[in-house]
Amino acid sequence: MENASLEYDAGFLDGDGSVQLAKPSERHANPLPRIQVAQSYHAGVPPELERLRVRYGGYLRCDNPKKTTHRPSWRLYVGTLQTAPKLLGVITRYGITKARQASRALEYMTAEKRRPGDANALYELLKRAKSEYADAVIDPSKITIPYIAGLFSADGSIGTGRKRDKFEVIASIRQKSCPRLLHAIRDALGFGHVNKCGQLTFSGQQARKLAMLVRPYMDASQKAAQIDALMKYDDENTWIRRGPRGKSVEQLARDQELVNDMRRLKRQ
Prior knowledge:
By secondary structure, this protein is of the alpha+beta class. The protein has 2 domains: 2-135, Homing endonucleases (Endonuclease I-creI), CATH 3.10.28; 145-266, Homing endonucleases (Endonuclease I-creI, Roll). Helices cover 46% and strands 19% of the residues. The protein has helices at residues 2-16, 47-56, 84-94, 99-110, 118-127, 129-132, 145-155, 179-189, 205-214, 222-232, 249-266, and strands at residues 17-21, 33-40, 59-63, 73-78, 156-163, 166-174, 193-194, 199-203, 240-242. Strands 5, 6, 7, 8 and 9 form a 5-stranded antiparallel sheet that branches. A 4-stranded antiparallel sheet has the order 1-2-4-3. A hairpin with a 2-residue loop joins strand 5 (156-163) and strand 6.
């Protein structure tokens, strides 16, 4: 289970994390790499960021938005010699899109002696990182259910939708920087559809199957709360159903209650 938790963290950081080169500090003359994880959240500290902080260390920072309709932006920074190597090691071993950047940052951070120019070389590599995600080496053995759960928690969405007379649940994972990863995940799962917008989508029973697979690994995320809300209404027809023709008043009210719950959770 420990490996599963680390794989989940790697998937989450492939989605919402970034490896950066921090500015020099008074304690360390050479610049040190750091990992930044960002999320927007209304209801206090994002549970995922607090979980990572407890596990790996670091500190949290909140930037309040100028508009009250926008959510506060929270960031977790992990970037000291005592904390960053552990998290960089997790990304290197279990991550995919950010594994190369994390590996180089870890080598730099743990080197006994740094040569002149090492910091500049790492800075340039990290600066080019986003444009190189599409060329990331995809190891199929890394595409585990816990990894997918972490990526879904960071870059996924799940909600209800109506199209004409059909009510259904729709889930998706967005990954524009590395579309090949979405194809690899679809192949590993054996279901789903990759569209031209850089999304791996699931609808109806496929969305239910994905939710049942990833939920056991999602303890603190907003997506976990959304899946739980869906499960509260779960029956053989919740995930895809024809209507409203032939529905009882009670069933229509139940559908609307589910939609309201999903909207409330999405606003957090």
